[in-house]
C-alpha cells in the first residue's frame, strides 16, 4: 500500500480537484507537536506533515498562496495562545488551524474548562480577524494499544472530554471541527511513529486528507460537521 492506493489518503491531484475554487491564500497553523507535524518516514508515502500536504494542495489551487506554521512541541494551550496567537494574527490569515490540547489532557491536573477558555480565545480572535478556523478531536491512542494498561482509562476519558469541548466551542464560534477520535484508523498501529504518540508519514497523509475533506464540506455549506466514518 502507498498513498496512491490508501483509501484514507488523498493524492495531490485528487485533493486539488476536491478543493478547486477554494478561496484561501494565507494559511496559518498554531499549536503543539500536532501542529508542528512531528513524524517519521514511511515507505510509499511522501515525507511530509499534514500541514505541508494541505499547503501543497492550496498552492496548486491558488498561485501566490502563503503559509506559516508556528507549531512547537510540548506546549499546553495557554502557552500556545501566549506565544503564537499574536504572530498568527499579524500574518493576516484567511485560514487557520488551531491544533493543541493534547499536552494539557495528558498531564495531571487537566482542567477542561481552562483549556476550553484558552481554545475559545484563540478561535474567536482568528474568526474575528476574518479567518476560517479548523479545530480537531484527537485520535484515541488507547484504541491502538499504545498506552500502558494503567493509563488507558485516564487517557481515553480525557481524549474524549477534550474532543467534546472542542466540538462545542467550534459549533458556538463557527469553526470547522474535524473528529478523529473514533475513526476506524484509531486502532491501527501502522499510522503511528516509533514514539507511540505521534503520527508517522502515513498518519500525516490520513490527517491531511480528513482535514481537506472537512474544508471541502465547508465550501459546500456543512461548516462544522463531523468527518464521516
Number of strands: 5
Any idea what the radius of gyration is? 16 Å
Secondary-structure element series: HEHHEHEHHEHEH
Helix content: 40-55%
Number of helices: 8
- Give the overall form: globular
Description of the molecule:
- By secondary structure, the chain is of the alpha/beta class.
- It has one domain (12-219): 3-Layer(aba) Sandwich (Rossmann fold).
- Helices cover 45% and strands 11% of the residues.
- It contains eight helices and five strands.
- It has helices at residues 12-18, 33-36, 50-61, 77-90, 102-106, 112-128, 149-173, 201-219; strands at residues 26-31, 66-69, 95-99, 132-137, 176-179.
- α7 (149-173) links the parallel β4 and β5 (176-179).
- α3 (50-61) crosses α8.
- It starts with 11 loop residues before the first helix and ends in a 10-residue tail after the last helix.
- Mean pLDDT is 94; it is low at 223-229.
Amino acid at each position: 500500500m502507498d498513498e496512491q492506493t490508501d483509501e484514507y489518503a488523498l493524492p495531490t491531484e485528487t485533493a486539488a480537484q476536491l478543493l478547486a475554487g477554494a478561496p484561501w491564500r494565507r494559511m496559518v497553523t498554531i499549536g503543539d507537536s500536532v501542529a508542528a507535524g512531528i513524524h517519521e518516514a514511511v515507505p510509499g508515502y511522501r515525507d511530509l506533515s499534514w500541514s505541508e500536504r494541505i499547503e501543497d494542495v492550496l498552492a496548486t489551487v491558488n498561485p501566490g498562496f502563503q503559509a506559516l506554521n508556528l507549531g512547537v512541541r510540548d506546549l499546553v494551550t495557554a502557552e500556545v495562545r501566549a506565544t503564537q496567537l499574536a504572530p498568527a494574527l499579524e500574518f493576516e490569515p484567511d485560514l487557520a488551524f488551531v491544533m493543541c490540547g493534547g499536552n494539557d489532557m495528558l498531564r495531571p491536573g487537566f482542567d477542561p474548562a481552562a483549556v476550553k477558555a484558552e481554545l475559545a480565545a484563540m478561535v474567536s480572535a482568528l474568526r474575528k480577524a476574518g479567518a476560517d478556523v479548523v479545530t480537531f478531536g484527537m485520535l484515541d491512542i488507547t484504541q491502538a494499544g499504545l498506552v500502558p494498561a494503567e493509563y488507558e482509562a485516564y487517557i481515553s476519558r480525557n481524549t474524549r472530554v477534550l474532543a467534546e469541548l472542542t466540538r462545542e466551542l467550534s459549533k458556538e464560534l463557527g469553526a470547522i471541527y474535524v473528529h478523529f477520535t473514533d475513526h476506524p484508523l484509531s486502532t491501527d498501529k501502522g499510522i503511528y511513529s516509533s514514539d507511540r504518540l505521534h503520527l508517522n508519514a502515513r498518519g500525516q497523509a490520513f490527517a491531511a486528507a480528513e482535514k481537506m475533506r472537512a474544508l471541502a464540506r465547508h465550501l459546500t455549506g456543512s461548516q462544522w460537521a463531523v468527518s464521516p466514518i
